[in-house]
Amino acid sequence: MVEYDITTFAARRTLTVPRRLLEHPEYLSINATGQMMFLPPEALEWGTGEMATAGDRAWFWDGRQAREWKLAGPTTPGGSASRQTVTETALQWFLSRGGQSLFEFENRFEKVVDADEPGRERFVRNTARVWRTDLAGGRLETTITLPSSESCECTTGTCSESCPEWMFWAPDGVVDGFFLVTRMTPGQIGSRFHESLLYQRPGAKWQATKLPQPVERPLTASAKGEVLVAAVDDGGCCGWVNEGNDQTLVWSHGRSSVLFDETARYRNRNYDVSFYAADARLAPGNALVAQTIITTTPTGRDIRLSSDGKADADELARVSKAITELPAVEVMPLASPARPAANIRHATLVGWTSDRELLVAQDGHLVLYDARGNKVKDTAIRVRSAADAFLR
User: Fold this and answer.
1) CB–CB of 264/250 below 8 Å?
2) pTM score of the predicted model
3) How far is CA 121 from the centre of its chain?
4) Beta sheet of 375-382, edge-to-edge order
5) pLDDT, tens digit, 9 for 90 and up, residues 188-215
6) Which residue has better confidence, 246 or 18?
């Protein structure tokens, strides 16, 4: 059983929820009507040590009853003795803001497999579409069909390592006036991003706009998608975490600017520690953005040299001090993002309660701050982390 508080923390209801949801509340979405969707990602590790797979289920609460759906459709074999094929389907589910319907994102992979070497994939063709459904997951209505890829050769024997597919995103798992799709190749040791399409609905139909560059890790956006905040990840692999430069970018009406630049801020090239934005939230008026800055190295842990780093006592002392101040919530004005307007140390972001105030998790409590970083109120509400709290 779990209690959750609605909006003002005054109205309480009690639900029975899956144990896995309690372990990972960061994958729970809630819309304006109180409906909930729990959508675990593939390769998530449960508390039992078991790894999530594409066959794991989405959990949906419609306000009266709960339902579960598998995140993978049936695998369909086909072809002939000389050319064996298999069709696989991966599904994602998203809430609608108004609560009258759900959105289902379907990735379909039509694969040619090696008849002589089981498990080896030779070619794949990816198709994807977005469906609108009723609250029972039925009455499918096609919203959009994404451009299909040509047949792609799976050069390593695993198609996801060398062939592109589509990725769907909506803020907090809730579709309202827009959604984002990105064509990317998951890769063997790192993902490659090819293009992003922003679908907006100014009227009855969805219209697509190709963004100037692909969006790697979207964090937050305005209601209609005209302002979009996203992260560019380090890209380190093979046991190293600091092989590139973490950034937070904001796209506003087609133009981009940098909100956070790891290398410029921390000058940490010689040491294998990264600093990056874990999340972000726009204030209601879209003039301010708050983000949680975290690090890959906990306080007190030894810091090793990067793969091509050289010992530098001043840099090590600076990086070590920075680690002790994290996690921290930063508030940035979008009009002049050169310097943070506020820095709230040892805190993680929950969200904005107004244009002037934001809620954070700090020392096991929910705490209200103003946009300049001054504490307004320390609530009596205890949380394990910011993921335990939701603002609607």
Assistant:
1) no
2) 0.90
3) 28
4) 348-352, 357-362, 365-370, 375-382
5) 888 999 999 999 988 888 999 999 999 9
6) 246
